[in-house]
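Homework help board

Subject: predicted structure for assignment chain

Our instructor gave us this sequence and asked us to write out the predicted structure in token form, then describe one feature. I got the tokens but I'm not sure how to describe them. Can anyone check?
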Amino acid sequence: MQDNIEINPDKAFKRSVLVVTAFAAYLTPFLGSAVNLALPSIGKDLNASAIGLGWIISSFILSSAVFLVPFGRLADIAGRKKIFTAGLALFTISTLLIVFAWNMTSMIAFRIIQGIAGAMIFGTSMAIITSVFPAGERGRAMGINVTAVYLGLSTGPIIGGLLTESFGWRSLFAFLVPFGIAAIILINTRIKKEWADSKGEKFDLTGSLLYGVGLFGVMYGFSKLPSAAGWIFLIAGTALGVLFVLFEIKTDNPVFDVRLLFRNRIFAFSGMAALINYSATSAVGFFVSLYLQYLKGFDAREAGFVMISQPIAMVLLSPIAGRLSDKHDPGKIASIGMGFTAAGLVALCFLTPSTPISAIVVLLTVLGIGFGLFSSPNSNAIMSSVEKRYLGVASGVVGTMRMVGQMFSMGIAMMLISLFIGNQTINPATYPGFISGMKTGFMIFAALSFLGIFASLARNRRN
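My token output:
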């Protein structure tokens, strides 16, 4: 009877799960897109350099990426609902703490805690959806979940811009606290079931430490390039990564069964496509937000209205793409999305201080179409390619590819800012350097997107 409930739960239960996971999925992207717009205001209040502003974004992404796979595996063992709920609670507490941040050190410390909470949420949400929805309905459910993410990205610039202009940047974080509390109440009152398909198995602490420290070394080192310290961290992190793979192959209950990468072509290439896609696109919002506010002279609210074109396209297309991936090869749909993304990035390489706003809106819309067609089909391909006992790990991999890709993207952006501007504030004297760094970034991102098309096409057709 238990198995029957899990495979074919009633519609009300499915709806409750979808509402709760979508609600949680909304919170973090809303905050991310709103914080992008608030960066100039935060920088002025906390006296932050351009590189410091980058770390407000990167600290969250880095801590999320480091903990995603371990929390995904822990959720498989201890219970996905339990880890998901604890993540919502920690996210709400850390968001409240940021309201009272008094300098850059405290701001970044609280963002790290918030990132760990994000890992607990992202490392379980896709697994919960996959546990509840059968294969024929999973793409649609994931499409709705991804739509919630993009809805957060859509409303973040508008609501975030209005809050920042009217009440200051701290109001962004205060605004989210009641929603976090509401999400916790929702999951505790509407979802009584727990999922722990690997219950009783041993948690791989050694593998988790090797994974986390190695990933931190690679990502932190990459963000510090081309300095000597950056190369040291990068090489040390890579060495630990190799050690992690060797260790996991011999472990009975690995935190991440790396053999999945060798025996599951769909899982491997879908993960690679996600990594490349997020690496190529995540820093676009960072660059465009600063471009609109510094070079175009827009305030946060006006910049938000320009940037909303991208997530609106995502919101409209994600549910459609999710449903299509239930009936057609998700790899082909995702590859078409990557093609749109590459085209938009190539066009952004020609951005200048005099580029019309209408052209920027069109280009951001093209990027949004690419994102909308890629994300839910690709996630569906990953989650549908693994056994039930690996769902938490697979969910963690989906989130990790996103976070690692975002970190690499921001690492590229921060490296270029360091090369073209240095550790200075963005001001009229550094505008030419900022433009050169931004355009170089778009060229790199466009090249990555073309690689992503081939990675997406390389996976097998789903049966």
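Reply (TA_rk): Your tokens look well-formed. For the description, you could write something like this. The chain is about 80% helix and 0% strand. That's the kind of observation they're looking for.
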